[in-house]
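Quick one: co-fold with iron/sulfur cluster.
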Amino acid sequence: MLQQTQVKTVIPYFKKFTKKYKTLKSFSKSNEKKTLKLWEGLGYYRRARNLLATSKILVLEHNSKLPSTFKEIKALPGVGDYTANALLSLVHNKPGIALDGNVKRVFSRIINKKESKINFDQFIEENKKKFFNTKRNSDFVEALMEFGALICKPKDPKCGICNLNKNCKYFNSSKKIKTIKKKMIKSKNYDVFCYINKKKQIALTKENKLGFLNQFSLPEIREAKKNIKTKDWKLLKKYKKSISNKKLNINLYYKFSNKIPSSFIWHSIDKNEEFIPTFTKKIFRQVSVLF
Ligand code: SF4
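Sure, here it is.
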């Protein structure tokens, strides 16, 4: 849940989730529909799917325990090098470094070399005797991440109170590397076409080609093209929406119709038992003004 998401946003979801599923076993018996409903609004829904798939594998193949080798942990759905290393050390107290943005910045400053110029695997391998000379690998990996977040911060690192400042090349150099990265945000234009009817329903389909909302219930959505012929579609609104690391400029069109393409299903705009992504819920709110 915490991947790309702030703690304060996650807390109510985490509480709701752990109240409903008290054990790994009970969660593993759930299904995608129920899991997504609990996750509704938290975004990055692939995490929910991966978590469910992982719980089933752990229960069925690993006796409800997290495996203890890097290879086995990394084979679980949605687990990459970072998560595998974090789990290996946090759960099993084995040597491993979870290389997140904070940790990379700390290493890069200590040797005063740009991140893009560092081969981090090689760097860890060369320094493994220093890093893993402890019986507290779990505390070490956590401390490293916290150190990056609280002391060796992206802006204004607290070098004056830092225990590493004597050996830190960044602190002791007159030519300090730049460590603040500019975020690249992509902006794209989309046309959204909503079929609606007099019963206050909207037609949604799961057959859309939007990678970041693939397999979710959406109206028809296409990348906007200039001079598009919208014939009997009426423009309701133009608005902006941020999703993951993208900025979307939306042109929202609607049409009252009782006929819809075969892959579409009518959904009530007011009541929904089923999981609806935040992107679509915003469309519901916009369309509601027509009733
Ligand atoms: S001395 Fe400053 S730059 Fe170096 S590790 Fe400490 S906080 Fe980071």
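If it helps, Residues 186-288 form a domain with the Nucleoside Triphosphate Pyrophosphohydrolase fold (CATH 3.90.79.10).
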